[in-house]
Amino acid sequence: MFSCALCEEEIVIVSKLCPRCRNIKHLISVYTRDRIYEVLDSVLKRTEDKQNNKIDFEIKKEKENLENKINTRSKTSLK
Description:
The protein is mostly helical. It contains 3 helices and 2 strands. Helix 1 (19-31) crosses helix 2 (33-44). The longest helix has 31 residues, at 48-78.
């Protein structure tokens, strides 16, 4: 028995790839390897400025959630 050549997590007996990684290989054959890399880079990788934007967005969201909780508590205590 061997591990999948791509994910190295699944055990494979007959082939080199597990079913999920085989699907990735199929996508590469359909869309070309370069296109798959391009999509992975543009979707899954974030540049530093995008990372900072995401951090700022999450902080803003957290502040808004906290303000909503405070406002809700204030309204219920006034009743």
